[in-house]
Design goal:
The complex is a heterotrimer of chains A (about 270), B (about 375) and C (about 260).
Chain A (H helix, E strand, L loop, with lengths): L8 H22 L10 H5 L4 H30 L3 H16 L2 H12 L4 H7 L12 H25 L3 H9 L4 H12 L1 H17 L2 H7 L6 H9 L6 H25 L10
Helix pairs in contact in A: 1-13, 3-7, 3-10, 4-7, 5-7, 5-11, 7-10, 7-11, 8-9, 10-13, 12-13
Chain B lengths: L3 E12 L2 E12 L3 E5 L6 H9 L6 E6 L2 E2 L10 E4 L11 H11 L4 H14 L15 H13 L5 E5 L7 H18 L2 E6 L2 H7 L2 E6 L2 E6 L1 H6 L4 H6 L4 E9 L2 E4 L2 E4 L9 E7 L5 E3 L6 E10 L4 E7 L2 E7 L8 E5 L5 E5 L15 H6 L9 H6 L2
Parallel strand pairs in B: 3-8, 3-9, 6-7, 7-8
Antiparallel strand pairs in B: 1-2, 1-4, 4-5, 9-10, 11-12, 11-14, 12-13, 14-20, 15-19, 16-17, 16-19, 17-18
Helix pairs in contact in B: 2-3, 2-4, 3-4
Chain C lengths: L1 H25 L16 H8 L1 H33 L3 H16 L2 H19 L6 H26 L3 H8 L4 H30 L2 H6 L7 H11 L4 H33 L1
Classes of the chains: A mainly alpha (about 270), B alpha+beta (about 375), C mainly alpha (about 260).
C-alpha cells in the first residue's frame, strides 16, 4: 500500500491551530489574571463552585443510569429483528435527534408547566397540579429525553454483532433467560455500554440549557456557571477558563476509568 | 541465449525490524516462465513486490534491461501485476477494467476497442464487456485481471498466487491456460506460489526460497531429481532423508551397508544427507532386500498406497501400488539411480523422517507455540 | 415476552415523540396558549415568515452548514487517506487528536475557541467574533465526523486496488480519484451528511463563537425562548421537523432504490 501520509497534512495543521492551540490558550487564561500575569487565584476560586460541580456530577450520573436501563432492553429487542425492521426502527429513534435540541427541550416545558398539558390531563381526574417544572426531576427528565438515543445507538450497534447462534448455543447448553443475559449478552455488550455511558455522561454533566429551561432559578449546574463566566456582565474569562479546565480533567478521568473497565479498544467510539 | 531482462542484486529488506530478505541475487531471462516457490513467509511475495515497485529495498539494486530501476515508481515501470484476489475495480464494468491502463495512457477510442476485444478473446471472455465485475465467478474475475494487465503490453508480468482462490479442477485448467498465454505472447512471467506441483508443471525455471534466501534455482527436473539441501528435498515431493557417509565417489554408506550411487565430488568419508524418493523404492521379500523392516501403517491414496515402514527406528515412506498389511516384514531394493546425495546444511535432520505428524500439527498441542500466520504479514506490506 | 417487549418499545416511542407531536399540534393553535386549544389557525406561520431575525438566522445557519460541510469533507477525507497509510503509533496519535472535539464537552470546545479568538483579538485586532469565527469553529467540529466515517471504508477496501491502479500506469493522485474515491464514497457521503446535521443543529459552540452579529438559528431560538415565548416557535419546530422528515424519507428511498438496483444487476 503506497503511503500517502502527506494527505493528512492539512488536517494536522487545522487541528493543531483550532483544537490543540485553543486548549493551550485555556490553560493560559486559567493561570493568569486579567492583566496577563501568572496567578493561582483562578484555581483557588474553584473552591466556591465545588458544590455546583458535585451537583452536576450527581445529576449527570443519575440521567446516565436511567438512560442505560431504559435503552438496554430497547436496543436488544431491535437487534433481534430483521434488517429492514431494524433500519426503520433506528431511523424512528434517530428522528427526534434531528430536531433542534432547544426545541425538543422547549417541548417539555409545554408539557410540564403548571398549566401544561400533563397537569391539565391529571386535572381531569382531580389530581394535581403537580409542580413538575423547575425541579431537579424536570432537569433529569430533560437530560434523559435528549440523550437517550445516544445510549441506544452504541448498545444496538454492539448487540447486532452478537450472533444469534451464540445465544442458541447457550440455550442448547441449558441456560435460561436470566443466565443467558448475565453470562453471554451482558459481557458481550460491555463495549457498547461503555461507549453509551461515555456519550451520555459527558454532555449530561456539562449541559446548561436544560437547567435554564426546565430547572429555573433553583438549579444551577456547572455548565450554567461556566456560561456566565463568558457571556454577560459577570464575565470573568480567567475563572471561567479554570473551571473549564477542571471540567475537562474530570471528564478525562472518567474516560480513563471507563477505558480501564473495557480492556479491548472497542469501547472507544462505537459510532 | 536469451538476454537478461531483470536482475536483483544484493537485495535486503526488513519490516518492523524483522529481516524479510537478505543478500538476494536473482537473474531472470527474457521470455521465460520463472516461479518463486516457497512456504508462507519465505519472502517470495516481497521479492515480487520489489520488482513491481510497491516495496523499496533497504539495500541492493533492481535492474531492468540493464538500467537501474530503484527510484522508478510503480506507475512508470514496464511491468504489470496480477494481484491475489484480482483487485478488479468494482465500480467499472469488464470493458472499463480492461481498458483502464490504456485510458491512463490516453490511447484512441479505436485502439482501445481493438485491444480490449483481443484481450477478452485471449482469455475466452468474449461478450462479457458490459458485465459488472461482482457478477463474475472467481475464475472469470481472474481472467479479467489477466486481460487488464496484458492490455498494457507489458514486457514482464508478475503474478502473485493468482490461482490460490480457485477450486482444484479450475486451478489445473487455468495453469494450462496461463502457460499457453505465456508461450504465445512470448513475454516473461514471474509467478509466485507455495504449491510445488503448480511450480513444477508450469515453469521453465523454479526458484526455491525459504527464510528470505534462495535455496536453489533450476529447471523443474533439476529441482526434483537433484535437490541441493534437505529443505528443497522435502518441500518438493516427498522424500526420505537419512544420514549417510560418502566413502568415495559413487559409493555411500547408510544403515551399515554400502550402496553404489551416481554422485561424486564429496570428500572421503564426508557425512552427507541421502535422499530417496518414496516412489523409487521397490518392495521385495525380506530375504531379497538390501534392507528389511516392518510395515507400521498403510493409507490408500487412490493413485498408490502410502506405506510407512520401520527400519531400525527410522520410518520410511514408500509409495507402492500393491498392498502390504501392517506388521508384515518386507525388504527393499535401492538402485543407484534412486539414491541422491546432498551436502549437509542447516536443514539437515529437520526433515525426511516420517515418524511424526507435520510441524503444524505438533504446534497445535504446544501451548507455547506462536501460531500467527506469516502470510498475512506479507500481504499487508 | 414478545408482547411485553412490544409494549415497552411502544412506550419508549411514545416518550420520544409525545412532546414533538404536542408542539406540532399547538403550532396550529389559534391563541397564544401552549396547552389550551382554541381552534385551527395558520397565524403563527405567517408571523414566522415575517420575522426578519429568524430569516437572517436561517440564512446564516444554512450557509455555514454548507461551507463547513464541504471544507470538513475535503480535509477529513484527505486526513483519513493519510492516516490509513501511517504506521500504528502515528495513526493512533492522529486519531486521538481527531477525537478531542468529540470527547470534550461541547461547552469546553466552545469556550476554548472563544478564548483563542479573544486572545488573538487582544493581541492583533483580528478575528472579532462574527461569521468568520463561527465558520471556523463549525469546520473544526465537523472534521472528526467525516474522518470517523471514511476510515472504516478505507479499511474495508481491497488494499490492492490502489496498487492495481498504480500498476496500470496511474499517478497517485489520479489513482485516488479514479479508484479509491468511488470505493469510499458511501463513507464520504455519510460523513458529509453527519457533518451537515451537526452544523445545522449546533447550539453550544455557536453561542460562544458567533458573538452578536452572526447568530445561527439555534442561538436565535435560545434568545427567543428566554425573552418571549409565542407559538411562533412551535411553527418553526414543525417546519424544521417536516423538513428533516422529508429529507430522511428521500435518503431512505434512494437507498432502497440503490439496493434493489444492485440486486437486479
Amino acid at each position: 500500500m503506497m503511503k500517502n501520509r502527506s494527505a493528512a497534512a492539512p488536517f494536522a495543521v487545522w487541528m493543531l491551530l483550532f483544537t490543540i492551540v485553543p486548549l493551550g490558550v485555556v490553560v493560559w487564561f486559567a493561570f493568569t489574571d486579567a492583566a496577563g500575569h501568572f496567578t493561582l487565584d483562578n484555581i483557588a476560586a474553584i473552591q466556591g463552585h465545588l458544590g455546583t460541580l458535585a451537583y452536576s456530577i450527581a445529576l449527570g450520573a443519575l440521567a446516565t443510569v436511567i438512560c442505560l436501563f431504559l435503552a438496554y432492553p430497547l436496543a436488544y429487542s431491535i437487534s433481534r429483528k430483521t434488517e429492514r425492521v431494524q433500519q426503520t426502527m433506528v431511523m424512528i429513534i434517530m428522528l427526534p435527534m434531528w430536531m433542534n435540541f432547544l426545541l425538543r427541550t422547549y417541548a417539555w416545558m409545554t408539557l410540564l408547566e403548571n398549566n401544561g398539558l400533563i397537569n391539565r390531563f391529571l386535572g381531569l381526574f382531580g389530581i394535581g397540579p403537580l409542580g413538575m417544572i423547575n425541579t431537579n426531576g424536570a432537569v433529569v427528565l430533560g437530560m434523559v429525553y435528549n440523550f437517550l438515543p445516544f445510549m441506544v445507538l452504541p448498545l444496538y450497534s454492539v448487540m447486532t454483532k452478537i450472533d444469534s447462534r451464540i445465544i442458541e448455543a447457550a440455550q442448547d447448553l441449558g441456560s435460561n433467560g436470566w443466565q443467558i443475559f448475565r453470562r453471554v449478552v451482558l459481557p458481550l455488550s460491555m463495549p457498547g455500554i461503555v461507549s453509551g455511558i461515555t456519550m451520555v455522561f459527558v454532555p449530561a454533566v456539562s449541559t446548561f440549557v436544560i437547567t435554564k429551561l426546565l430547572g429555573g432559578s433553583k438549579t444551577q449546574m456547572i455548565g450554567d456557571t461556566i456560561e456566565t463566566m463568558f457571556i454577560g456582565q459577570a464575565a470573568n474569562y480567567n475563572v471561567g477558563a479554570a473551571l473549564s479546565l477542571v471540567l475537562m480533567v474530570l471528564i478525562l478521568l472518567c474516560m480513563a476509568f471507563m477505558g480501564m473497565v473495557d480492556k479491548d479498544e472497542e469501547g472507544g467510539l462505537v459510532v | 541465449m536469451e538476454k537478461e531482462i531483470i536482475k536483483l542484486k544484493d537485495i535486503a529488506v526488513s519490516f518492523d525490524g524483522e529481516p524479510v530478505l537478505s543478500g538476494l541475487n536473482l537473474s531472470i531471462r527474457d521470455g521465460e516462465f520463472v516461479t518463486l516457490l516457497g512456504p508462507s513467509g519465505c519472502g517470495k511475495t516481497t521479492t515480487l513486490r520489489i520488482i513491481g515497485g510497491f516495496v523499496t529495498p533497504d539495500h541492493g539494486d533492481v535492474f531492468f534491461d540493464g538500467k537501474r530501476m530503484n527510484d522508478l515508481p510503480a506507475y512508470r515501470r514496464p511491468v504489470n501485476t496480477i494481484f491475489q484476489r484480482y483487485a478488479l475495480f468494482p465500480h467499472l464494468n469488464v470493458y472499463e477494467n480492461v481498458a483502464f491502463g490504456m485510458r491512463v495512457q490516453k490511447k484512441s477510442r479505436e485502439e482501445i476497442k481493438k485491444t480490449v476485444g483481443e484481450m477478452l478473446a485471449l482469455v475466452n471472455l468474449k461478450g462479457f464487456e458490459k458485465r459488472g465485475v461482482n457478477t463474475l465467478s472467481g475464475g472469470q474475475q481472474q481472467r479479467v485481471a489477466i486481460a487488464r494487465a496484458l492490455a498494457n503490453n507489458p514486457k514482464v508480468l508478475l503474478l502473485d498466487e493468482p490461482l490460490a482462490a480457485l477450486d482444484l479442477k479450475l486451478r489445473k485448467d487455468m495453469q494450462v491456460e496461463l502457460k499457453n498465454i505465456q508461450k504465445s505472447l512470448g513475454i516473461t512471467f514471474i509467478y509466485v506460489t507455495h504449491d510445488q506441483e503448480e511450480a513444477l508443471s508450469m515453469s521453465d525455471t523454479v526458484v526455491v526460497m525459504d527464510g528470505g534466501q534462495i535455496q536453489q534455482i533450476g529447471t523443474p527436473q533439476d529441482i526434483y531429481n537433484e535437490p541441493e539441501n534437505a529443505f528443497v528435498a522435502d518441500f518438493i515431493g516427498e522424500s526420505n532423508i537419512l544420514d549417510g557417509i560418502m566413502h568415495e565417489d559413487y559409493l555411500v554408506e547408510f544403515f551399515g551397508r554400502k550402496f553404489p550411487c551416481l554422485d561424486a565430488g564429496f570428500g572421503p568419508k564426508e557425512p552427507v544427507d541421502v535422499v530417496i524418493r518414496p516412489e523409487d523404492i521397490d518392495i521385495v521379500s525380506p530375504e531379497k532386500g538390501h534392507l528389511t523392516g516392518t510395515v507400521t501403517s498403510v493409507t490408500f491414496k487412490g493413485v498408490h498406497f502410502e506405506t510407512i515402514v520401520d527400519f531400525k527406528g527410522f520410518k520410511w515412506m514408500i509409495q507402492t501400488t500393491d498392498y502390504y498389511e501392517v506388521g508384515r516384514q518386507i525388504g527393499i531394493v535401492l538402485n543407484p539411480e534412486d539414491i541422491h546425495i546432498m551436502k549437509k546444511s542447516a536443514y539437515s535432520g529437520m526433515f525426511g523422517d516420517y515418524s511424526s505428524y507435520s510441524e503444524e500439527f505438533d504446534e497445535l498441542a504446544d501451548p507455547e507455540a506462536d501460531l500467527v500466520q506469516e502470510s498475512v504479514d506479507e500481504e499487508n506490506i | 415476552m414478545k408482547t411485553l417487549s412490544k409494549i415497552y418499545n411502544g412506550l419508549i416511542f411514545l416518550f420520544l415523540y409525545a412532546p414533538i407531536v404536542v408542539l406540532i399540534i399547538f403550532s396550529f393553535n389559534d391563541s397564544r396558549s401552549r396547552s389550551v386549544w382554541h381552534g385551527f389557525s395558520l397565524r403563527w406561520y405567517e408571523e414566522l415568515f415575517c420575522d426578519k431575525e429568524i430569516l437572517n438566522a436561517l440564512i446564516v445557519t444554512l450557509t455555514v452548514a454548507v461551507i463547513a460541510t464541504v471544507a470538513a469533507t475535503v480535509i477529513g477525507t484527505a486526513a483519513a487517506v493519510g492516516m490509513h497509510g501511517m504506521n500504528g503509533r502515528l495513526r493512533r496519535a492522529m486519531m486521538a487528536v481527531n477525537n478531542i472535539p468529540m470527547v470534550n464537552p461541547e461547552i469546553v470546545t466552545g469556550i476554548a475557541m472563544l478564548l483563542l479568538f479573544a486572545f488573538i483579538y487582544r493581541s492583533t485586532g483580528w478575528f472579532q467574533l462574527g461569521y468568520g469565527t463561527l465558520l471556523l469553529s463549525h469546520i473544526t467540529f465537523c472534521i472528526p465526523y467525516v474522518v470517523l466515517q471514511v476510515m472504516p471504508k478505507l479499511r474495508q477496501m481491497n488494499q490492492h486496488m490502489y496498487e492495481a491502479a498504480l500498476d496500470l500506469g496511474c499517478r497517485p493522485v489520479s489513482a485516488f480519484f479514479k479508484v479509491m474515491l468511488p470505493e469510499i464514497m458511501p463513507g464520504v457521503v455519510t460523513g458529509a451528511l453527519m457533518a451537515f446535521t451537526m452544523s445545522l443543529d449546533d447550539f453550544v459552540i455557536s453561542l460562544f463563537t458567533s458573538g452578536s452579529s452572526a447568530q445561527n438559528l439555534s442561538v436565535t431560538i435560545y434568545s427567543m425562548v428566554k425573552r418571549r415565548i409565542t407559538p411562533e416557535i412551535n411553527a418553526l419546530s414543525t417546519l424544521m421537523f417536516g423538513a428533516v422528515l422529508i429529507l430522511l424519507i428521500l435518503v431512505n428511498v434512494s437507498q432502497i432504490r440503490g439496493q434493489s438496483k444492485a440486486q437486479k444487476a
